[in-house]
Amino acid sequence: MLPRRRTDCPRQPAPHPCVGWPATRSEIEIMTARTEQTSPTISPPSWRSPRFLTEALRSPHQIGAIARSGRRLAAHAAGLIAARSGPQTVVELGPGDGALTVELQRRLPADSNLIAVEVNTAMAEHLSHTLPWLKLIHGDAADLPKHLAEAGLGRADLIVSALPWSVFNVELQQRLMGAIVDGLEPGGTFATVQTVPVKPLPRARHFRRLLNKKFDAVLHTSTVWRNMPPAHLYVCRNPSGSAAPAAGVAGESLN
């Protein structure tokens, strides 16, 4: 007979989405508030997407995951948009069927630019129909600086990635990361989804070391266990060798 579960234990407060984030109280309050914001003006696509699963099974080296990112993980990514006035440029790499895209668009200040780069043809066509307002580029993320230049934009303030890094070989990881660093403002932020089951894999471990090499500050959000599969974000700031670090940001080793 299984023991009865105790119900009188006090509930622990949930940790702030960024584990180890050296933010002030006001910064935490702003990020938490932004994570909980909603907007009635943009309707998200269905969270149970057969198109995503079909393309994941057909093109595992382009999609990687078997399920799209959940709402909570998407909210964590959108909460990284800088809490400041004025237009910003945000790039999403590997938007899939738009799970993160809608949340990012909701949080952007007026006159900002959201650019999505999708290499999978079927997913790009799907996005063009389901999210007609999106500035979509059907192309390779490794050509990000060229895509930004052709769109008449400078470097991005925030780059969010759902690319399947654990299935990319070392050469492709380095090529993509070079494009990301070149396309990011010196004080900008790069965030990428990391699913828990693949973290022990050799290519996933190499990717983590690559992040530590390319950025002065690498942190991670708390794991969203209800995501399928469970996942968190690596949050990276200040590409190595760029201008002076943004105030209040310090590194945390993930080795």
UniProtKB/TrEMBL annotation:
<dbReference type="InterPro" id="IPR029063">
    <property type="entry name" value="SAM-dependent_MTases_sf"/>
</dbReference>
<dbReference type="InterPro" id="IPR041698">
    <property type="entry name" value="Methyltransf_25"/>
</dbReference>
<dbReference type="InterPro" id="IPR020598">
    <property type="entry name" value="rRNA_Ade_methylase_Trfase_N"/>
</dbReference>
<keyword id="KW-0489">Methyltransferase</keyword>
<dbReference type="GO" id="GO:0000179">
    <property type="term" value="F:rRNA (adenine-N6,N6-)-dimethyltransferase activity"/>
</dbReference>
<feature type="domain" description="Ribosomal RNA adenine methylase transferase N-terminal">
    <location>
        <begin position="76"/>
        <end position="202"/>
    </location>
</feature>
<dbReference type="Pfam" id="PF13649">
    <property type="entry name" value="Methyltransf_25"/>
</dbReference>
<keyword id="KW-0808">Transferase</keyword>
<protein>
    <submittedName>
        <fullName>Methyltransferase</fullName>
    </submittedName>
</protein>
<keyword id="KW-0949">S-adenosyl-L-methionine</keyword>
